[in-house]
Design goal:
The chain is mainly alpha-helical. Helix content is about 75%, strand content about 0%. Helix 1 packs across helix 4, helix 2 crosses helix 3 and helix 7 crosses helix 8.
Length: about 200
C-alpha cells in the first residue's frame, strides 16, 4: 500500500482519530491496539503497519494536537484553535497532561513555547499588553485555558450544561472567559499591590 495512496492516508487518519478518542476516554494504558482497530474499522495488523506500536501511535496523537495548536501555515500559534476543535482532541489533551508522563510534560512545554511566541507577536503588533515575565505569563495563560479540560464534570454541574465543551456551551461561556482576559476582573490595583507588598516582605524582587 503506497503512502501516496489516498486510501492509505484516510485509514491512517481514521486510526489516529480513533486512538485520540480511546486514549482520551480510557487512558493509554487501558487501551489495546485491537480496540482502536475495531473503532477505526480496520485490522490490528493495519494499525501496526501504519504506526508500528501503540506508543508510536500515541506520539502521532501528540504531534497531531501540537499541529492543531500551531495552526496552518498562515495562522498564528493559538491554543484557542485547538480548544475549539473536536471533543476527542480536548479529552486526549486533558488525559495526557493529567497522566503526568515525561511525554506529557514535553507536550505541555511545547504548548507554552508556542503560546509565548504567539503572545510576543501580539505585543509587537500592539494587541497584547507588555509583560515583565513573558514566559511565566504564557505558562499561566495555558494553564488557565486547560483547566476546564480537567474540571469538565464540575463545570458541567455548576454551569448547568450537559457538556461544557459542546458548541452551545462554548458560544455561551467563551465570551465570559475572553472578557476576563481582555478587560480583567478588578477595577483597581489593590489586589496586585497587596501581593507585591507580601513579596517585598519575603524578599522577592
Amino acid at each position: 500500500m503506497s503512502s501516496s495512496d489516498p486510501s492509505a492516508s484516510s485509514a491512517r487518519d481514521r486510526i489516529r482519530d480513533s486512538a485520540l478518542e480511546r486514549f482520551g476516554r480510557d487512558g493509554v494504558n487501558r487501551v489495546t491496539i485491537r480496540a482502536i482497530a475495531a473503532d477505526a474499522g480496520v485490522s490490528p495488523a493495519l494499525v501496526i503497519h501504519h504506526f508500528g506500536s501503540k506508543e508510536s501511535l500515541r506520539k502521532a496523537c501528540d504531534a497531531h494536537v501540537v499541529a492543531l495548536i500551531r495552526g496552518g501555515d498562515d495562522a498564528a500559534p493559538d491554543l484557542t484553535a485547538m480548544l475549539e476543535s473536536a471533543t476527542p482532541v480536548r479529552r486526549y489533551l486533558a488525559r495526557a497532561l493529567l497522566d503526568g508522563t515525561s511525554d506529557a510534560a514535553a507536550l505541555f512545554d511545547e504548548i507554552v513555547e508556542l503560546t509565548a511566541d504567539w503572545l510576543a507577536d501580539g505585543e509587537r503588533e500592539g494587541w497584547v499588553r507588555h509583560s515583565e515575565q513573558p514566559h511565566a505569563r504564557a505558562a499561566l495563560y495555558v494553564t488557565w485555558l486547560l483547566a476546564p479540560l480537567a474540571f469538565d464534570t464540575h463545570l458541567a454541574r455548576v454551569l448547568g450544561v450537559a457538556d461544557p465543551h459542546g458548541i452551545d456551551a462554548t458560544l455561551r461561556f467563551a465570551p465570559v472567559a475572553l472578557d476576563v482576559f481582555t478587560h480583567g476582573i478588578f477595577t483597581s490595583d489593590r489586589e496586585l499591590e497587596a501581593w507585591r507588598a507580601v513579596g517585598k516582605e519575603h524578599g522577592s524582587p
